[in-house]
Predict the structure of IS481 family transposase.
Amino acid sequence: MQRLDFIRASIAGTEPFSALCRHFGISRKTGYKWLERFDLSDPASLFDRSRAPHSHARTVPPDIITNLTELRQKHPDWGPKKLRMWLLNHQVDFPVPAASTIGDILKREGLVPDRKRKHRTPGNRQPLTTIREINQVWSADFKGKFRLLSREYCHPFTLTDNHSRYLLSCQSSNHENTAFARQCLTGAFLEYGLPDVLRTDNGQPFAGVGVAGLSRLSVWLIKLGIRPERIRKGHPEENGRHERMHRSLKSALKHGNIFRTQEEQQAWFSHFREEFNHERPHEALGGSTPGQVWRPSARGWDGKVPEYEWPTGARLYRVMSKGVIHIGKEVFLSEALLGEYIMLEEKDDGVEAIIFNGMTLAYYNRKTQSIIRID
């Protein structure tokens, strides 16, 4: 046997190891591997090792397969990794197969639908806030309308904490507007406290056409000390963690979870939110659930909009009708700022920052009498 002859020659030490490997027609790496594997009491240790998986779908006992299929049927939108994590988290009284084996079982049992591979858009290249801690960045959106069994449209409003993936709000409505979004946010802020940043897309009611893309809703957020942050148009992946939750919600809706009335749909949304936060393990959280990671914000809120304290000597201008200020001429800012005060602060020769409640919205060039947008 070549391998055993090589081991004997190597132990004898009659020639250098490199020369010995050349003599047997093997690389030094292979030679070291044979030496490492060799066990004097077990000549079979030199045989090639099997690359077959430790567990195989066809060797898993029927009772374990039954448990797996029942769990999958209960959670049809959970994949093999998530199912395995759930079983490990709940310390079941049977050996949990590998995720690949679970996947093979699900395919064999006809529980894996065919799906097309999606081409992903390149990642974010804009300076969005880097998410480092809980309640630093929340994301809000309307998921997208769908018809209830009554043919009425449902527009779910959703709100998540980006760090923990905790689903803070999932509310059913028959419309998308500022009043409903503010109602949902108000409820979340009162119960959970305030985030530092609220990330959204560029649609209504989150954004407008004036400076900094302000809307009535984002002006209210700034007054609460929350910085609105918008992703680039056409780049939903920049709100990727929130979009991932939306995919889970959409997948769950497909499995017979669309109802007749808004009230019935809301009851299911509440059930989905409870399961998403406290039952569904998350790979990015090491198998933990969002509810095991998340905690309320240290920035509590009493429901009142605080009065902003401007610096002493600040040059203040009130935003008048049609969203303009008068600084020698009418300068349009945003109709969302109607009735609010902004501050002009000198920065460079002839250039002033336009500041609202501590947030720089744009710059004004007095020489050209024009706005320099930074959004």
About this structure: The first strand starts at residue 137 and ends at 142.
